[in-house]
Design goal:
The complex is a heterodimer of chains A (335) and B (590). Chain A is an alpha/beta fold and 335 residues long. Chain A is 26% helix and 29% strand. Chain A is elongated and about 65 Å long. The chains are: A alpha/beta (335), B mainly alpha (590). At the A-B interface, β15 of A face α20 and α27 of B.
Chain lengths: 335, 590
């Protein structure tokens, strides 16, 4: 029975572990104290508003398998090839020897304090999409003085497609996430005004375009094409934003109770450091696969595989598919 | 009277007259094209005591090259051995001629003394011969260093040497040849007459078996021609700096400054540049980006030869690193701006019409606070300042809270002089109408503008100065935490306005201040200076990363700076926290 190390117990790690565990022994490393930490704060998933908790539960149940050894609080610091074997080194210096390695170290969200002009961390009324998801989940959408907001403004592309923050790429999931969150906010706050400021809306997936149309027709979400240049606080602790409506060609100022920053996806710290260590670091700290079309789960190193959002921004559906394909390839490799 | 004429002196005599003629002509013409302000300064101060320090400065800089010595000992020795050494050769030569020859004599005798005077050696003549030899040796060692520097510049502590135009190289070689030829000529004469010093006589003794009158004449002729070639090419080459720097020092001491447009004073500045290339070494455009041919030395050369282009002038961050390095102290930034000057390329007349409606707030007893456009993009800084004002119960008027008017400096930097002036006038009238006594700004760009480009009747402070004052007077009580903080000197505040100590004093009272690799005048630009609009993002990031790296020398916990631009730049480059001095203070108010 071959041994496989999977690094990162997110959706990709768990899905591939559960598939590989049918005929192999899997060591599943996770640096934090809980699996699926990125999903736990999510309320509902686009495009069908299925419950994130349900998905997390069914993924978690896949971990109940005698061939999967889940190691929480175990941060992998190095992966070294030893002939046909791989040596995994954790932070405490302990070594594990395995036949194949799958990296599923995932993403982290853009640190919005880096865009200081948008006031995150300075004004209470400025939140990120992650905070918003939590507010929706616990049904507590409040402004800076704990009142129900009368106006909510979403701003797209915070830390994505942004040369100044060093991330030129599109994070792919934020457009539709804002549409989804706006609809959820509308459901909870029927009288609020809801705006989405965007550069262009990329409704690429199945049902996304329909959701976008529905948000305008049924939920009265208003869309403004333009980026917000700066946010400041008013005397009554609301947020004043300055932007340009690029369709009308006029500068505009608006006061809002909540400004929601749709933060992009970046390679997680673990992705960056392991990518560097193994020499498979790609653009922006994401991991580079062998070829983009036919070998998208393989790397330049034999026996070292990757899956999920450590490669590039991905939706959870794509992540799970990708994890499955990686599992197939690893099984084949070990045969 | 002895015959002190020989045909070989003709090139030298001719060359000297041509040199003096051209110089006098140029200097008078340049002075005539001073602008009104510059000329009134000269007229006002020409008979004042400002002359005395100018004389001292001219001796220190033009002869001893003090600033070059400060940069690198070998480089200083190289420059001053040639300049001061040659000066002494001429001076001691003249004294020697005066002491040893009685009666009238032509001026070239001092230069070609050994050729004309070779009577029986007396104690005086032996002493002089040895002194002159020693001086010649010093000059020759300088020339030797210059030759080595051409191929191995590290010997004088420079990464790069200036790439000179053909004509400059021609002048340089004629200068270098003067001294070996003088050595040969004097030695050859010594071979026959025995009138040399320790060096020329020793060399002369070797020549003695092959002495021939014609060869001696040939050496002296070559020496004279070489001098003539150098003299004639000097006013058109970089060596014009030799005389011009003296004039420049005097004008500067009289209070003459560079204006918006190129004038005769600019010509003095351009010609005072020796093209030493010290400005290239630490220029981020060269050091980090490898862009050559755009540094101040090249721009000044191009402008002097009327080939200055806006493309070259634009390739600059205006970080003033070169200005602080320049041994002649030229106003490099203003000259660059003159090339950038755009007559009417931008019609901004309607853009600021909203500013007409902004009312000045009666601020008697209040502090005026001007955040600046950039601080609006870093609200952490403005919020902290407000917190500090409130902590010390200081009434304030946040002048540009809602309707911002730019201070005008970014426009000025790009050469939009008229548009910048319009903005300045608008701000100025508001500031004066407010009747406040103190203006505090959070942006070093605005600070430099308010202090240098405005004519304000009230005191202007950067917030670091203001906070330092509050701490000193005991109005602001702070607790000290044990964070290790490194301070980054913003170009505009440090090199631009000379504020280095106040931010450090403030930081010392709230944290443990550690040193950066390059500090104060030597600090690196964050790469996002508004002086440049043509650099690409990649180039800016490279400059920024170098600056961040230089701050990491002592493993600080936090990077502090005092400029919103630097803060924004660094924020995207490091996982360390980057904070403004005001923010750290606001967090530590008791």
């Amino acid at each position: 029975m071959s041994k496989i190390a999977i690094i990162g117990a997110g959706p990709a790690g768990i899905e591939s572990a559960s598939m590989l565990a049918r005929s192999h022994e899997v060591l599943l490393f996770e640096k934090s104290s809980t699996a699926l930490s990125n999903i736990l704060d999510k309320a509902y998933l686009f495009p069908d508003f299925s419950s994130a908790t349900d998905i997390a539960d069914s993924l978690n149940s896949k971990l109940i398998n005698e061939n999967i050894k889940l190691m929480l609080n175990t941060e992998v610091v190095d992966i070294v090839r030893n002939d046909s074997e791989w040596k995994i080194v954790d932070k405490s210096g302990k070594n594990y020897f395995v036949d194949a390695v799958l990296i599923t170290t995932g993403y982290q969200t853009f640190d919005a304090t880096r865009k200081e002009e948008l006031g995150y961390g300075i004004y209470k009324g400025v939140v990120t999409s992650i905070d918003m998801e939590r507010m929706i989940k616990y049904n507590q959408i409040v402004n800076s003085i704990n009142e129900s907001p009368k106006r909510v403004v979403f701003l797209q592309c915070v830390g994505s497609r942004d040369e100044k923050s060093g991330n030129r790429y599109c994070s792919k999931v934020c457009c539709v996430t804002a549409v989804k969150q706006a609809i959820e906010v509308r459901k909870m706050l029927p009288d609020a005004e809801i705006y989405i400021f965007y550069m262009d809306l990329r409704m690429w997936g199945q049902h996304f375009e329909e959701l976008y149309r529905e948000s305008q027709e049924k939920y009265d979400i208003r869309y403004v094409r333009g980026r917000i240049s700066e946010a400041s606080s008013t005397f009554d602790r609301k947020i004043q934003i300055k932007a340009e409506d690029t369709l009308l060609g006029v500068p505009l100022k608006m006061t809002t109770d909540l400004l929601v920053l749709m933060v992009g996806m970046e390679a997680s710290a673990g992705t960056k450091s392991l990518g560097c260590k193994c020499g498979i670091e790609g653009e922006y700290g994401f991991i580079k696969t062998a070829t983009p079309h036919l070998c998208d789960n393989e790397t330049s190193e034999k026996g070292l595989f990757v899956a999920g959002s450590c490669k590039r921004p991905m939706t959870i559906n794509d992540v799970i598919n990708d994890a499955r394909s990686a599992a197939c390839l690893i099984s084949e490799y070990l045969r | 009277m002895m015959n002190y004429f020989s045909p070989f002196v003709l090139p030298f005599v001719l060359g000297t007259f041509v040199l003096l003629g051209i110089c006098v002509f140029k200097y008078i013409r340049w002075y005539m094209s001073f602008d009104r302000v510059q000329r009134s300064k000269v007229k006002k101060n020409i008979l004042s005591l400002k002359f005395l320090p100018a004389i001292w400065e001219a001796i220190l800089e033009c002869l001893f090259h003090r600033k070059v010595f400060r940069r690198n000992l070998v480089l200083g020795y190289m420059h001053s051995s040639i300049a001061f050494g040659w000066f002494l050769l001429i001076l001691v030569g003249a004294i020697e001629a005066e002491v040893c020859i009685h009666g009238s004599k032509p001026f070239w005798v001092a230069i070609f003394y050994r050729f004309f005077v070779h009577e029986h050696p007396t104690t005086t003549s032996v002493v002089f011969a040895n002194i002159m030899d020693a001086l010649l040796l010093v000059v020759l060692s300088g020339v030797m260093l210059a030759v080595i520097k051409m191929v191995y510049s590290k010997i004088v502590g420079m990464r790069r040497v200036t790439k000179h135009v053909l004509f400059d190289r021609f002048a340089k070689f004629s200068l270098w040849f003067i001294f070996p030829l003088r050595l040969l000529a004097e030695s050859y004469t010594a071979a026959y007459y025995g009138n040399g010093g320790f060096m020329t006589q020793a060399l002369g003794n070797l020549f003695a078996p092959i002495y021939h009158e014609y060869v001696e004449m040939a050496f002296w002729t070559m020496y004279s021609i070489c001098l003539a070639v150098f003299f004639v090419s000097m006013p058109f080459s970089r060596y014009m700096h030799i005389f011009t720097e003296v004039f420049l020092i005097f004008f500067r001491r009289m209070g003459v400054t560079e204006g918006d447009e190129k004038t005769g004073y600019t010509m003095y500045e351009l010609s005072a540049c020796s093209r030493c290339g010290i400005c290239i070494d630490n220029c981020p455009m060269d050091k980090q980006l490898g862009v050559q041919g755009v540094q101040s030395v090249y721009l000044l050369r191009d402008v002097r030869y009327k080939r200055g282009t806006e493309e070259v002038a634009n390739q600059c961050l205006m970080c003033q690193r070169c200005s602080s390095d320049c041994p002649v102290g030229l106003d490099l930034m203003t000259i660059r701006r003159q090339v950038r000057t755009k007559e009417s390329a931008l019609d901004a007349s309607g853009n600021y019409s909203y500013a007409d409606n902004i009312q000045a707030f009666n601020s008697v007893g209040r502090v005026l606070y001007f955040g600046g456009c950039m601080s609006h993009l870093t609200p952490g800084i403005t919020e902290s300042m407000i917190k500090i004002f409130e902590a010390v119960d200081q009434n304030y008027w946040y002048m540009d809270k809602n309707r911002t008017i730019c201070c005008g400096r970014p426009l000025l930097q790009q050469g939009f002089l008229k548009q910048a002036k319009d903005l300045r006038l608008k701000n100025q009238s508001m500031i004066i109408k407010s009747k406040a006594k103190l203006l505090v700004t959070s942006c070093p760009i605005c600070y430099q503008s308010f202090t240098k480009e405005y004519n304000l009747p009230i005191k202007v402070m950067h917030h670091t100065e203001y906070i330092a004052g509050l701490i000193k007077s005991g109005r602001l009580k702070l607790r000290k935490d044990d964070l290790k903080v490194v301070y980054h000197d913003p170009c505009e505040l440090g090199r631009g306005c000379g504020i280095y100590n106040e931010p450090r004093e403030v930081l010392k009272s709230v944290s443990t201040l550690v040193k950066a690799k390059y500090e104060k005048e030597k600090s690196l630009c964050c790469g996002f200076n508004l002086g440049s609009t043509v650099l690409t993002m990649e180039q800016q990031t490279k400059v920024r990363d170098a600056a961040v790296e230089s701050l990491m020398d002592k493993n600080p916990d936090l990077i502090a700076t005092a400029c919103p631009m630097c803060k924004k730049a660094f924020n995207h480059a490091t996982t360390l926290q980057v904070k403004d001095v005001a923010e750290i203070v606001a967090e530590n108010i008791i």
